[in-house]
Specification:
mainly alpha
């Protein structure tokens, strides 16, 4: 039971602050494979949760903005669209660990909702980042 609670804690940390979770797990003495599996599955849980609720949130906000007559195009929205068009989903996947699971998932839900493979792309990106961050932690610790 204690181990299950520990895994739940690591999953929560992976969802909230993915970038430091694998290294922190290595520092406290978790194994290489265990660190990769727990941090990856934690990120995947977060991707599913925030992708699902992100779609609902953006649908609600869109309806609310229409009722209020909010200005559709602002300078910051134009900048976001420019970045989206320049880098696309591949750019988001490349930096997903740097901007966290919730933000990455919400951005994917908002700007790439038409891509059916956006969730597998994010899952793959976080899996790769998990391996890289775990290996960096092991090398910094003097592992292998």
């Amino acid at each position: 039971m204690e181990y299950i609670l520990e895994i739940l804690g690591w999953w929560g940390m992976s969802i909230v602050k993915f970038l430091i979770t694998p290294t922190t797990m290595v520092v406290v003495g978790k194994g290489l494979l265990e660190t990769i599996l727990i941090s990856t599955t934690g990120a995947w849980i977060g991707i599913f949760v925030f992708s699902f609720f992100g779609k609902k949130l953006f649908a609600y906000l869109s309806q609310r903005a229409k009722r209020r007559g909010v200005k559709v195009f602002t300078s910051s929205r134009r900048r976001i669209v420019r970045v989206k068009q320049k880098y696309g989903i591949y750019g988001l996947v490349a930096v997903c660990a740097l901007i966290s699971v919730p933000i990455s998932s919400l951005l994917a839900a908002k700007y790439f909702h038409h891509l059916k493979w956006r969730i597998p792309a994010l899952m793959g990106g976080f899996a790769i980042w998990s391996v890289l961050l775990t290996l960096i932690g092991w090398l910094a610790r003097g592992g292998f």
